[in-house]
Amino acid sequence: MLLDKLLRHIVVHVEPFATCLVDSGWRLRLPGPPDVMFHFVLQGNGFVREPGGQQHRLERFYLAIVPKGTPHALECGPEIRSERVIETPPTGEGVVRILAGGGPADLRIACGVVSINYGDSLGLFHRLNHVLVADLSPFTQIRSIFETLLAEQGGAGAGSEALTQALMSQCLVYLLRHLSDEPDDSLPWMNGLNDERLGPALDLILDQPGSPHTVALLANASMMSRSSFAERFQEAFGVPPMKFLHDVRLRRAAEMFQKSPELSIDQVARRVGFTSRSHFSREFKRRFGASPTAFRRVLPTPRTLG
Q1: How many domains does one find in the chain?
Q2: pLDDT (tens digit, 9 = 90+) per residue, 209-259?
Q3: Which of 48, 166, 233, 253 has the fewest CB atoms below 10 angstroms from its CB?
Q4: Strand 107-118 and strand 11-14: pairing?
Q5: Nearest C-alpha neighbor of 133 from the set 52, 59, 232, 217
Q6: Full residue range of the structural domain in which residue 24 is found
Q7: Torsional sign, CA 22, 27, 28, 34
Q8: Alpha-carbon distance 294 to 284, whole Å?
Q9: Residue 234's CATH number
């Protein structure tokens, strides 16, 4: 499946989580996050409120996804009598506890900023423009994922970052399974994955990024006109097809440097579709902030990105 192919190359970064504890009758106002924020309900029920006042019901094992830069509030109880305002996101190591009320908390939520991208082309939630709430209660594994994540970040032992990324990747799979069954246009790229006409072209890009693709050839694979294909691809994924291909090639090159250190820079460049080493090196540095030579010099023991 195309979704499986995308997930193999997804890069996940998880900021330190907080545990938000909200008493009945309290509102906890939170600032707009620097990237999408996940709120997973561990206990109780309540609401998440958007800037315009729209409320979304939260229940145990629900996951609320708040778009980048969107101020919002967590509320508990039928009548709000008090509130606490958080001006800036918490910083520091370990899991921070944010209290709204004197306790014991009626609503307990794991809250954290998460970045999930496929290269520069596809930020999975970059085009989300409203709070998205998913009922993940059918997935019994999801609570243990978040509780393990909180415990791991609280302990910060060796390999903690890698384990945290792996846990969030598991959460992402369950979330996407849920969203793929919902008739929702919140994530246009998911519709693109399910678009039978775009599918063949996307399959070619992911399976054969080094081939000499052009918009015309990709359109032909999708049995569409060049203009119709380009417009449909842009609408689904937010970038033109050749920009998406370009980022796939660079991400694949970085993976090759990590997994296959015996390959020369010229070999990697050719395998991902660059005919000029200088052009490849320039674009690679623009994407990763280091030349291929410098990138290889600081690589740890080979492992899979993400």
Answers
A1: 2
A2: 999 999 999 999 999 999 999 999 998 888 899 999 999 999 899 989 988
A3: 166
A4: antiparallel
A5: 59
A6: 2-180
A7: positive
A8: 11
A9: 1.10.10.60
